[in-house]
Write a structure and sequence with these properties.
Length: 133
């Protein structure tokens, strides 16, 4: 699994997993054809990965931790439980199409954070506009 997928799964995972079983779980007993779904079934079916509030989930994960995940790729990776070593940041940079020097510079790290947030948004996450600029 690539680094971005690990980041995305850590942020999206719990909500996406919560929605999946309810949507795909077989029903027990015979339900009459044309029956109205129960409110719980309707609510679970309406939860989708595109409903993931990235900022909210990260804020929840960051409670009690002193990490600057809003602008630091290193802190973001630490927050979601991924090794933030230069090697992993280089791999993430290559996955996301970074064309500059893979040297761990501030330029590379700033680009990585923004590109990660943009990719999370492209995969259905709600990301604040200031994190996408």
């Amino acid at each position: 699994m690539n680094i971005f997928s690990k980041i995305k799964d850590a942020i999206f995972g719990h909500k996406a997993q919560a929605a999946t079983p309810a949507q795909s779980a077989p029903t027990t007993g015979a339900a009459p054809t044309g029956s109205t779904p129960t409110p719980a079934t309707t609510q679970a079916a309406s939860v989708a990965v595109s409903d993931v509030d990235v900022e909210h989930n990260l804020e929840q994960m960051a409670q009690g931790k002193y990490l600057n995940w809003r602008s630091s790729i290193v802190d973001l990776m630490k927050l979601v439980g991924i090794d933030s070593s230069l090697e992993n940041r280089k791999e993430l940079a290559q996955e996301l199409g970074y064309t500059g020097a893979l040297d761990g510079s501030a330029e590379m790290n700033i680009w990585l954070h923004k590109a990660t947030m943009k990719e999370l948004a492209a995969n259905g996450g709600k990301v604040p506009a200031e994190m996408l600029d």
